[in-house]
Amino acid sequence: MKREIFTIILCCLSVFASGQKEVYLQKNNILYYQDYNQKPNALISARCKLDVYYPKSSTKFSTLIWFHGGGLTAGNKEIPAELKDKGICVVSVGYRLSPEVTAPGYIEDAAAAVAWAFRNIEKLGGDTSRIFLSGHSAGAYLASMITLDKSWLDKHKIDANRIAGLISLSGQAITHFTIRKEKGLAATKVVVDELAPLYFVRADAPPILLITGDRELELLGRYEENAYLMRMMTIAGHRKTRLMELQGYGHDMTKPSFPLLLKEIDRIVLSKNIGAR
After folding, report:
1. Are 98 and 81 in contact (CB under 8 A)?
2. pTM: predicted TM-score of the whole model, two decimal places
3. For all residues of the chain together, what is the average pLDDT?
4. Which of 87, 148, 191, 217 is most buried, by CB atoms within 10 Å?
5. 3-state SS assignment for residue 232
6. Given a cut of 70, is residue 227 above it in pLDDT?
């Protein structure tokens, strides 16, 4: 009888434990340049910080590095509410903005933040084989540059092909309009140079999901830029680039994109046979 009661208690405790909600922790304002040979200054100290939101009890979790939008001239690091409590870690990155810096300063910041994640995320329980890059608009541009142009992470002795996947939300594929403005060029002047993701199409890149708003509602040419990037990646031999167009949504298309982003993380993780998020 005592053994039966003990068994019932254990079962109840097991059910209670399995029904408990995962606890998440957040570490804020981590200076990601502290490990690198970058001279500190007031702007770096103010802008080059990241926040980490991660599941306390999980191990080998996926990590999403999120770059905010704002045209490379505005915005602050943020952890979107739609990405919280989803079983993943979110690293939200702040970076220097134009005109305080010009290209490629903000790209250098993005690379340093990604390198920080590769060097530190295991300490929190994460898996470096499951680090994904994403962002909206200017943030997606930065994530795309770091993924496709391997030279930025090479400076940190990290192979960009270790990135598990890129999910770009309405990012620029040509040279960003703020960079063109810094050069005195009009927004309608199309430039594809070493500061354009399109310049670095390659067959061996990580999986890429490009999501844009409706081509008739997006910022000028944004859907077409991404469609051309997808086409050129395919021609170059990359078989893992996909494009989604969200009908009825303009440039502010993050909310309907987040479920697709999370689904893409699961799809890639499962395809690698390393378990779901």
Report:
1. no
2. 0.91
3. 92
4. 148
5. helix
6. yes
Q: Mutual orientation of helices 138-148 and 105-120 as an angle, nearest 10°?
A: 70
Structural domains present in the chain: 25-271 (3.40.50.1820)
AA identity, residue 106? Y
Give tens-digit pLDDT for 60-72: 999 999 999 999 9
Cβ atoms of residues 62 and 130 within 8 Å: yes
What is d(CA 259, CA 81) in angstroms, rounded to the nearest whole number?
Answer: 12
What would the DSSP string read from start to end of 164-228? -EEEEES--SSS-HHHHHHTT--TT----STTSGGGG--TTPPPEEEEEE-TTTSSTTHHHHHHH
Place of tokens 């140079």: 193
What tokens does 12 get? Answer: 């109840």
| Longest Cα–Cα distance in the chain | 85
DSSP string, 62-126: EEEEEE--STTTS------GGGTTSSSEEEEE----TTTS-TTHHHHHHHHHHHHHHHHGGGGTE
